[in-house]
């Protein structure tokens, strides 16, 4: 059985009603309702974004032992101040332990990510299409849609070493069973917590004094019979030496099979039938009265087929089956190939027909969800060396393995094949001769080569040693917290079954020599080239091993983080309206990374010992030889020193005027890479002399320093053969180097939030309402610039600093352009959050409680400006291809008594668009299409409504059985021109989960 949820403060302990919500939702506003709950009542979630009563701390939801709580103030993440009766002005959502359990997810990340204010978070259903990003399977949060790099994620108020070179942690590596609550600060918190807290903070609080044994065993599966899930969790805690020595430990293993790629064409995994190869086709005509772009289902590329297609010239339209036999390809739209050099098909659109033979389409092969395997261990030992003073050490190990399939095949359009190639069927060779040609254009999905698989292995080792507690000084109690943390993260990425582009090009160029089929190039033959038959689906094993060696691309990354931190808080003086509370402290942090990649991707010169990757003259010595997954070598480090001060000043405490306080903080930070920057905040709360009504507001200056990737990115080199040089009005050969930029400066943000809340008025106890308006403006946003823009900005003298990034008339070496990030862009967003809840005890005379809770976020605008001349800022609010829908809602209704609970949950977001820049028009009535306002015939993406249900049954006082069904109606995702958008839409369908929890 779950215990009552209680709210504790320095002045005492107040029982608060809390609901057993099956979902984070309870995301309760910020405080418990003021009503008392009988000790036998089931646990309930506390409303979180509402004002606290004078005796309560902001947004505290605790499921901890009463003895511990009576000794310590609880610090909620919106502030560093630990003082009874203090209410921070920053809206904070709290997800309690009961809420996490009720949502019954195999990964706590999924529970938290359902909050409406979290927009654009990643996870195992995101980045599954990627080979090279290094972020496959990475679970990280994004608040306000501004990206995971602008959301600070903490564990017990402490930073976590990044699981990616961008610096974001992987939530899957966190110890999860001992998480007591999660605080989500919806607004900037850089002044209190430092860099990256631009969108807000997500703080996981663990139960450091858990006593007993508890566990959880859970399984799950989709209605399609895939993504089988298994989760086993166990935690134990014990106190020794008269309750002075506290030991806790936990371990968990989780496996989710994921949902792999489907077949070529449009058939998804498990028989899902919602994929329609929706494509935004560019007609290429701007001013004929019809839209430039048209959105169509079942689009068929005219540039390749599953086992090969001749795409231009007199033989255009001849395709090959798996056995290599030629046949006439069935173009959609009743298309007829022009059979000339253009490769056009009459009756079709540029590049695409509709319907016809779709068997060669590759997008259905993308994984809908990465598989993930988690192994987590955590331990903590704390010793109370004095009353209310503790010294402790903790260690956690986490390993997360994921795998995904980016796409079907390894598509290669626009190949030139020789008619004399001995693998070309005789009928086609005869047709070549009759047409008087010696070569033809060719495209293939390369279905015969199989599908690429990407495997990641992240391992994290993290140790913390600290001391914290309370001291009496000058008649006042002072809280202190000092710790040292070291974390190391290893990330291994391995790619299987992927071709080396130049070897592929050599292998498909076959000839007959001395009666044998061989590669044309003598150099390639001398280095092991085996001829590859790409006409059909029967390549030789020797050819496959030549173009796709067993040792594929790899990347080996090591990141370290060292932190030394000290914070102190207390109330040194009593003033006219209450005690003045302050907090101050400092922190030193060092971040380092190094990455090593295979020589075929990174370049031979970077790896003298090639090992299983022998030098080959047909490959490019500088790297970039793989079809995808060309990882690079690199390293970098920086250090940070910072100090902060925060104060809470009570200014009113009157029956006629109410209670009010002003809260402010300032932080100075010195980066070894970019110098000194200041962050600050000022805000306040006012409990009006109206029963349960509060006004709150805060404005802040927040910062995000450039991360290791932006500063020291591993260089990537590509060739631009016909780059236009505006200085000399000619085309030149240029080497493009994509590199980091050590001259980057921190991004600067201005956050403002203002709101009103009503909590548990005496005329309707159990009611909580809150409304908060927010605006967030970020300037000097770090973003990359295209090579042509870098040169033009210098040529036009618009951005002189770009002039040092290139040399188009280099006399001492090749011409080059260094493509790197600059502080040019900006983001401007605003909207509001709404939360409402009501708790009804003994509804209709029934035993137990009924709770209704609704949360919503409305994004009024989300404008991104590249900062480049001639560009128009892009507003993506309401773009359902992205992360910021117009409205996003979460609603939960629960009934619970001493024996069982039932839950109904609704998740919903509104209709949207493919992009707000488009002008929708009908044929015959369209204005001229422009680059900034292109015309389109369909710009609608429907929203989605998902219904989830769940429940529990108490088998004994210690054992509870539960079930959960997500997406009960099996709602399919909307048609989308980007395959689908897993950041918003459920791609898996109805999912069943069930399990048993126990606690002794």
From TrEMBL:
Pfam families reported for this sequence: Plug, TonB_dep_Rec_b-barrel
Claim: Lyase is one of the keywords in the record: no
Cellular-component GO terms for this entry: cell outer membrane
Low complexity biased stretches: 45-56
Annotated compartments: Cell outer membrane
InterPro entries per UniProt: Beta-barrel_TonB (IPR000531), Beta-barrel_TonB_sf (IPR036942), Plug_dom (IPR012910), Plug_dom_sf (IPR037066), TonB-dep_rcpt-like (IPR039426), TonB_rcpt_CS (IPR010917)
Domain of life assignment: Bacteria
Keywords assigned: Cell outer membrane, Membrane, Receptor, Signal, TonB box, Transmembrane, Transmembrane beta strand, Transport
Domain TonB-dependent receptor plug as annotated: residue spans: 87-201
Ranges spanned by the short sequence motif TonB C-terminal box, renumbered to the chain: 983-1000
SUPFAM superfamilies associated with the record: Porins
Signal sequence extent: 1-33
Protein's membrane topology: Multi-pass membrane protein
Boundaries of every TonB-dependent receptor-like beta-barrel domain copy: 455-968
Region (Disordered): 45-69
Family classification: Belongs to the TonB-dependent receptor family.
Entry protein name: TonB-denpendent receptor
Organism per entry: Sphingomonas sanxanigenens DSM 19645 = NX02
